[in-house]
User: Fold this.
Amino acid sequence: MGGYALTTDEEFVWRVGRGEVTLRRAGDAWTVKYTAVGRLLGPRQVLYEALHRDPTHAAWEVMARVVHVTRDEEDGVRAGRSAVQWLKAQPPPAKSDPAVSQ
Assistant:
């Protein structure tokens, strides 16, 4: 089946067929979302969503979602590796200074 990655500063997207697995920062955590177009080409629906504090777990989640969709472990490993490269390129989350916010 095969898939490909689309990346921006805000998100990593792995598209495969009519589905897409998206990884993006949510504060100090990461969300992984699997969406797909309906059988009659209806609007995109969220079929799975998870929140991870550890970026490694988020990359594993991307890999697992792609394997689930494609039923191809090699494609999942490629997606996971691409997600890790994208995660490593991301800046660390901005931490608020408690002295400033008081």
